[in-house]
Every structure is written in structure tokens, then in C-alpha cells.
């Protein structure tokens, strides 16, 4: 279990949403070592990441799945071909331009009746991201998380990059019941934009008249078992 209350709150929501998504193609955009593989119930799981090592570690654990080494700001799979596309805890690593380009690519790939889920820091680029999503989907549901209380608690043990900086004692005494309580308190404030620092955005009913397509790996280079390079 993660030690960060905000992450627990986010994962609780992600696990619930993904448990209902039984479509064909699930894409984990910035899958790292496929650490959220277990949440996906789609028939196929495709992890995309820019980090070769992490992706290969993921494929060693899940050899039946597919890994694509790609930059999300550049990789654009077939249009209207993905039933579920998730990108969590990643867009804030990108420049504003790359973040917008990646979100446009996600929108392009999702099927008309598919679902796109992203998490995003609340920052200067988030209004633009929201505007793009609201223009592209009929339903855009936002769950705000990482409230000031969780933020303060996490600042005691983590640096700005999210790295645990606590001492050994803190590692032992990062009180689990308190973390779980704080994660549930997140539910009380998840409608409030100004008291939170992150957004979990779930989009459905894409506004398009184009038909759906089959997902395909054509044009990618096969570089190992189920491992492709874009
Ligand atoms: C903090 S991890 C997030 C992993 C997982 N999605 C999660 O929610 O914990 C960020 C991942 O994004 C990947 N990443 C960062 N920039 C990327 C880009 N432009 N294209 C593809 N992956 C990228 C990194 O390699 C890393 O594995």
C-alpha cells in the first residue's frame, strides 16, 4: 500500500473505475514497469513508456502483455481504436506543449464509446487541458484530490519530486491508520477545486462521427517478445 494519502484516494477511484471497463483494448500511457496492470480488466493490456528499462521489467513480469517504447507527446496509435486509455501521474513531467500534444494523442486514440482517464496537477496548463477535453467529450467528470491536509502530511516525508525523504524511524512510524483516515477525508473535499492540488479526470462519449478502428501495431519496430519501439 502506498504511504501517501492522496495516492491511496486516487488509486481507490482508479481501481473502481477500471473494474467496470471490460472492453478489448486497454492502454496504460506511462505504464512504468506496468505497476497498475492488475487494475486493468480489458482483454488486452498495452503499456507505453519512454523508459526502456521500466518497460522491459514490466514485460518480464507480464510477458503476455504488450509494451511500446514511445514518447507520449509524439506517439499516436490508430484513431478511435482504444477502449480504455489511462495516464496517471505523468503529464506534470512534460513541458506544457508536450502535455497538450500527449492529451491530443490520447483523445485521438480513444474509441467513440471508450473512456479516457488522466490525472493532472492543477496548474497554469490545466484550464487548456480541460477545455480540450470538454470540447472532445460529452461527459467529463473531475475528481479533485490531494487536499491541503494531505499535502501538508506528505510534505513532512516526501520531497517535491515525490521521493520519500523520511528517516528510518519515520518509515516505521508513518502511521497507517492516520494515512488511511486522511485518504478517506479526501472524499469530503473532492468537489472543491481550490482546496486540492490534483485532478482525476474521466472522459466518456467522445464527440466524433468517425467509426471505430481496430488497434494495430503496424509501423512499430518489433524489438523483443511483445516489445515494440515507436
Ligand atoms: C511517476 S511514473 C507514473 C507511473 C504510473 N502511471 C503511476 O501512476 O504511478 C511516470 C512515468 O512516466 C514516464 N514518462 C515521462 N515522460 C514521458 C513521455 N514523454 N512519454 C512516455 N512516458 C513518459 C516515465 O518514464 C515514468 O515511467
Please describe what this structure looks like.
By secondary structure, the chain is α/β, with parallel strands linked by helices. The chain has a domain at 10-146 and 199-208 and 221-229: Vaccinia Virus protein VP39 (Rossmann fold, 3-Layer(aba) Sandwich). The chain contains 7 helices and 9 strands. The protein has helices spanning 5-19, 52-61, 96-109, 126-136, 148-157, 168-172, 176-188, and strands at residues 25-29, 44-49, 66-69, 82-87, 110-121, 137-147, 196-206, 221-224, 227-229. A 9-stranded mixed beta sheet has the order 6-7-5-4-1-2-3-9-8, with helices on both faces. α1 (5-19) packs across α7 (176-188). 35% of the residues are buried. The mean pLDDT is 93. S-adenosylmethionine (SAM) binds next to loops.
Which superfamily, in CATH terms, is the homologous superfamily of the domain at 10-146 and 199-208 and 221-229? Vaccinia Virus protein VP39
Helices, by number, come to: 7
**Spatial shape:** globular
- Hey, roughly how much beta strand do the residues contain? 25-35%
Strands of the largest sheet, in order across it?
Answer: 6-7-5-4-1-2-3-9-8
- Uncertain segments are none
List keywords for this structure.
alpha/beta, globular, nine-stranded mixed β-sheet, 230 residues, binds S-adenosylmethionine
